[in-house]
Amino acid sequence: MSEIRHDATPRDGSSRQRFERYRAELSKRSRIGGEDLRGKPRKPLHRSFGTLFRAYIAMLRPYRGALVITFAALAIATALALIPPAGVKIAIDSVFGDAPVAPALAAWLPSWLDPSNKSSLLAAIVVVTFATILVKVAIGLVGRSRATIVAKKLQVALRRRAFAKAIRLPLSRVHELKAGGVSALVREDAGAAGELLFGLLYNPFRAAIQLIGSLVILAFTDWRLLVGAIVLLPMVWFSHRTWIGRIRPIYRDLKKLRDEIDGHAAETFGGIRVVRGFAREPAEVSRFARGTNLQARTEILVWWWSRGVEIAWELFIPAATAALLWYGGSQVVAGRLTAGDLVMFLTYVTLLLGPLEVLANTATSLQTSLASLDRTLDLLGEEEEFGSDARTANPQGARYLEHDRVRGDIRFEHVTFRYAADGRKILDDVSFDAPAGTMVALVGHSGAGKTTLSNLVARFHDPSSGRITLDGADLRDVDLASYRRLLGIVEQDVFLFDGTIRDNIAYARPDARAEEIAHAARVARADVFIEKLDDGYDTRIGERGVKLSGGERQRLALARAVLADPRVLILDEATSNLDSESERFIQAALGEILRDRTSFVIAHRLSTIREADLILVLEDGRVVESGTHDELTGQSGRYATMVVLQTEARRDPAR
Ligand SMILES: Nc1ncnc2c1ncn2[C@@H]1O[C@H](COP(=O)(O)OP(=O)(O)OP(=O)(O)O)[C@@H](O)[C@H]1O
Ligand SMILES: [Mg+2]
Are 602 and 573 in contact (CB under 8 A)? Predict the structure, then answer.
């Protein structure tokens, strides 16, 4: 284990014990060098700095115009900031002292200003200094606001792209990332990557201009002082790299720990009923508290390391200033330099160190943002659902389906399916024909593969071998989005969004008219309970529909599928939570729902599927019997046995 982790079990010990283990681990890491002292991991980061930088610049291309304005404004504002110290020098030398104003400068002065009149010279210096600062602030604001707007626009664009990509990832990838993981990626990482503009371009650019400007001026004043100032810089740089190298990995670990704690907390509240049901509240509180404790301990550790950098700067700047004061002061005493020169020089040194300090202090957050950009690029580079399929990778090759042109003949040809390449066969050589408008019923034991088969119809997965055709065309050759628009699905685990009942029914067709929604609700027998609610169709149902009963949720899901007016309808245990009476009602309506649609109905209650045109009995992924109800009950096979068992159970509920 090479990082701090949120405990999965109480056996991991108290947060203090785990923190001590983490520290021991850290010092071992720096000795054996999973990461060397300058923070360069032996195992390279996913992308090099250069690659990330180029990728970022490419993203900024649409904002070229605004960026030119930003950096021009920044350059002007930064250059203007270099003027006031020169004013101080003139004041000290020519107003307080007796040195004449330099001839080059005197030539610039307007004729009404007499450089030998000290009070008017002082007034002129003050006015010019103040005006310069005003202009600098105004121009700086223009640049900075432009930069902020660009950063926000980029952030929005990146988040949108990340969300659009994540929502199209293959289902197995989405399950791997977990809901919490996806939303963290989309919000935090894509957001932080958007903010890179300042850390990566704005601040370094300002520092560079300030550096060049001050160096040029310093060179004109006294080149020896300049050399002294420059020599000190690498020392700071080196100490800085050493500290940063220590800090970055801890930050990285902290980020991961926080994700784990948050993910766990979200899961706890998602499963709040289980937590309550088994009275696990104290245990969950303590797990959360231990995680947060460990996080706090580590944050304090990293705080100390960060203060190291800060203290180094706090000591370095006064020390450098003192050294220059000592050397420069002796030059002044010897008459080789004026007092004004020295003050100006010291001011420039401070000006020069300031932006470097900003760069140093933001170095950690820059690293975090770069890591975020890296993760965002990873996400954007992932393949979309079935994007790897050579045939659909070419959108022109995919057939676009139109609702009214599709008949709805579905055919399975020797379909075999495994969830993973090396997994067991969940479906094994399944072949059948479902002509347009017919109803196919799937029955079989739990785990036989019924839901999996219907998932293949919905093309949530592709067959491992064999093929599924719609009107004779392989599903893999069909435009996925246009195919899904033909589908209506009521899943075994009904999922509803927080919102009103109306929103949930109209999810597939937000523009549906009120009568259409009411009709769909009536068909699904949902109108009965909706009308009893205070707000009727405008009732909010809470996250995942917590405010509804299981049967009510099913009826809403059914209404949602009915309103979508699908060509192909999949009902996976769609009526299992209903009482017999409601089910019989829906049974009557089912005739209307299923008319003209090819439908796949999964039901444990066999009475639901009596009317099916084709009943497939699945066992361990194989079709062991197929036919109509009458045909199958005629044989003394598995279906017949199941029918007998269910009728007996109904006649004698005690069994
Ligand atoms: N995402 C998955 N990854 C790997 N295996 C899976 C996955 N989903 C289901 N399975 C396995 O596939 C088999 C068939 O599952 P499926 O959900 O199709 O059964 P089912 O016939 O619908 O059962 P039930 O009547 O209980 O709903 C099960 O053994 C299950 O363990
Ligand atoms: Mg199932």
Answer: yes
